[in-house]
Amino acid sequence: MSQEYPERPYEEQEQDQEEFLDVNEVAEEVADDETAPAPEDDDEDMDEDQDALEIDMSNNSWSYFDQHKDSIFTIFKHPKLPLVVTGGADDTAYMWTTHSQPPRFVGELAGHKESVIAGAFTAGGDFVITGDMAGFIQVHKATKGGEKWVKFGELEEVEEVLWITAHPTLPYFAFGANDGSVWVYQIDKSSGLVQIMSGFSHSLECNGGVFFEGKDENDLTLITISEDGTIVNWNCFTGAVNFKLLPHTDFRSVESPWVTIKIYKNVFAVGGRDGQLVIVNNDTGKPVHSLKTLDNVDDIAELSIEAIAWCTSPEINLLAVGLVSGDLLLFETQQWRLRKSIKIDDAITKLEFINNTPTLVGSSMNGKIYKWDARTGGELFAGVGHNMGVLDFAIVDNGKKLVTAGDEGVSLIFHHE
């Protein structure tokens, strides 16, 4: 990016009249939203819905964004600027700032045909990718230092996009589809969107994928997981399968529909819809540990592992696992013993550690977002204000702010030191 914005103290951000964006210079569709609309004050509605009133009164958020007209499914942040994208069931994605109060509306990534459920910024933040449930993917390019975003390219290869991931350092992105297919594209500033690979090794939905950062530009490796119980390591440049793990054969009689994947160094953790957790060494292509996280539940759907997070602090060897049951399990990764267990009153939707710290952030369908000290399991913060579930979140300002994606169509910004 041509311009970087240094972090400033919270108080300065609130008082500074020179905002990150000049609303007179942004794209034509950008709204001059100097003040966020005040919440409606309808005495009759409040009398009829006392539960909503109680939730509103307990709102401890710092600010909010409410342009969406339906559920917000995904939120992700720019790698350098105080900027996020939210995508929702209203078939669109919005860009807006997180450093100002209220947030500044930057623009709409219009043109999607169905619910926007996935997206990512490229490593340098020059491009943003968004995908919807109709299989339509758009790429927009930043101009004027991020003040304006223009259409760069589009794709429509599959019936439904399930996930999108961007390479951590190189200008590539991958996505998986409901037919099990896997696709990798390069964003070339002169040639546009260039297909690098399409793979068809999964027989059912490809539920997740993640790049492994290689030694150099000649190493482009992607790991994908599927509902059919397979895990595939791809050489993206050749389309060859480096290794493929099969149910029963490689997982000791286990046949799990894999739904979650997270990497750490040379290993990755995969979570199943049936509560199975597997740790795989990417160098050898062999599982090194496997365990069943939960047993004795009335509803098998509660076993599903919806969230995994590795603690990257070198002194703290922890893996956090969150289930539909509301169980948060913290495993010590040397001997794979359960260190702590925390119970939430509804499904856990996402987990993420703050940088190289033991502070764990988690969201739930109970409408709350939390911070915990993973070493002790102690709760540090609980953000409230949603009247439906929190489906996704982004950590900004090194963990000082948490920005949510609410099922009711509102994003909240929580400020907590």
From TrEMBL:
Residues 1-11 have a biased composition (Basic and acidic residues). Residues 1-20, 27-49 are annotated as: Disordered. The keyword Repeat applies. Pfam families: WD40 (PF00400). Keywords: Repeat, WD repeat. PROSITE patterns: WD_REPEATS_2 (PS50082). The keyword Zinc does not apply. Gene3D superfamilies: YVTN repeat-like/Quinoprotein amine dehydrogenase. WD repeats lie at residues 65-96. This is WD40 repeat-like protein. It comes from Suhomyces tanzawaensis NRRL Y-17324.
